[in-house]
Design a protein that fits this description.
Elements: H1 7-23, H2 27-38, E1 46-52, E2 59-63, H3 73-83, H4 89-93, E3 99-101, H5 102-105, H6 114-123, E4 125-135, E5 138-148, H7 156-177, E6 192-196, E7 202-205, H8 208-213, H9 253-262, E8 270-277, E9 281-289, E10 298-304, H10 311-317, H11 322-332, H12 337-344, H13 348-362, H14 367-379
Antiparallel strand pairs: 1-2, 1-5, 3-4, 4-5, 6-7, 6-10, 8-9, 9-10
Helix pairs in contact: 1-2, 1-7, 3-6, 3-9, 10-11, 11-13, 12-13
Length: about 375
């Protein structure tokens, strides 16, 4: 088993990873804790952690500072959500085991992958292992691990180890979603408008954009992890467009993701997604393509998400069944049992049975408690 040290040791490390995930208090801490705990059993040189919308699998945030420079972020997410590549998150979501190894997916010819040609190869990675973090209620994020040219690569033991973590880490990440609460934005703050060109470079940013995104989790600007970026993937000369300390003025990954997704073949005219900020909670993103001769090709508006927009995510994160989600949503909208029964085409007695299950899963005893608890936990302003 090499680095894995046998089945018994692998199980011990896996249990340690699950404990670390369960002990994390924020999504930001989750990926740091998980990757540290994995290191004794799984060799990797770089990693990225991603959170996704469980309905669309569009990126809503993440930690790339250990893997991808900001200069390459737009191209990476363009490949992910517009151009397409092997082991995409939707593809992994359709698999019985949501794990994908890049070298295996391309039959050993890494240059078949645009993600390798434009991102991993120029950065000096030789392979990539992706794990979609999902439980029985949906997908909540992904873990991407890379190994350098001088590494031993990922074998069957590595993919099996990663597969064993997909469900427990998905469950832990889902629970952490419940700890994120939206905070009301002070009155008078205008929505922000972002115009991007074909390469996702900002053409225009309204002044409000900085106020929406200046509190996003941010780490120090890394040097390219495994060698200098080469060729056109670098997006220009070294340091071009960099901000203070050499950090390029990048937008949040969630902005690039929804902008790329709306440009994908067959995409809807307008796509809606969200991003997570530290002090403002979830903010809503709306993207559409811009027609005309101007350099702008995509517009993205960022604004505070209304409390009702979080309902679907919150009830999903509590592990409610589809029927329970429908009924809980109607309760949160203030409908009485008789109207819920009519909308859901159920008897009032069946509605009450479903409500009892909802109460058990959310830890409340009544409809009033349900409404009060969910809004207090997830939609109300944070207490100092």
């Amino acid at each position: 088993m090499g680095r894995y040290g046998g089945t018994e040791r692998t199980v011990r490390v896996r249990d340690s990873v699950v404990r670390a995930a369960g002990a994390a208090r924020t999504v930001e801490d989750f990926f740091d804790a998980v990757t540290r705990a994995m290191a004794p059993a799984l060799r990797f040189d770089v990693w990225a952690g991603v959170t996704v919308d469980p309905d669309t699998l569009i990126n809503t945030g993440g930690n790339y500072r250990n893997a991808v420079p900001d200069t390459l972020m737009p191209r990476m997410l363009d490949i992910e959500y517009r151009e397409g590549d092997v082991n995409s998150l939707p593809e992994l979501a359709r698999r019985p085991v949501p794990v994908g190894l890049l070298s295996e997916a391309v039959g050993g010819d890494l240059h078949r992958s645009p993600r390798y040609r434009d991102i991993a190869g120029p950065l000096g990675y030789r392979d990539e292992l992706r794990v979609l973090l999902r439980d029985r209620h949906g997908a909540w994020g992904a873990l991407v691990l890379g190994v350098g040219d001088d590494g031993e690569g990922f074998g069957p033991a590595a993919t099996s180890f990663a597969a064993a973590l997909a469900q427990p880490l998905g469950d832990a990440l889902r629970r952490l979603h419940l700890t994120r609460r939206a905070q009301e934005e002070p009155a008078g703050t205008a929505p922000g408008l972002i115009l991007l060109d074909d390469a996702y470079r900002p053409v225009h940013l309204t002044p409000a954009v900085a106020r929406w995104f200046d509190d996003l989790p941010e780490g120090p600007a890394p040097a390219p992890p495994l060698g200098a970026v080469r060729g056109p993937a670098a997006g220009g000369a070294p340091g071009e467009g960099a901000g203070p300390g050499g950090r390029p003025p990048g937008l949040p990954p969630a902005v690039y993701a929804v902008a790329a997704a709306v440009r994908a073949p067959g995409a809807r005219e307008t796509l809606t997604s969200w991003a997570v900020t530290r002090s403002r909670g979830r903010v809503r993103l709306h993207a559409w393509q811009v027609d005309g001769p101007a350099p702008a090709r995509v517009a993205v508006v960022v604004e505070q998400a209304a409390p009702g927009e979080h309902i679907a995510l919150i009830v999903a994160a509590y592990g409610l069944t589809p029927r329970e989600r429908d009924i809980a949503t109607l309760v949160l909208r203030g409908l009485p049992t008789a109207e819920i029964a009519r909308y859901a085409r159920l008897s009032p007695h069946t509605v009450q049975d479903h409500l009892k299950s909802v109460f058990d899963k959310t830890g409340v005893r009544s409809r009033r408690d349900l409404v009060g608890a969910l809004f207090a936990r997830h939609f109300g302003p944070r207490r100092p």
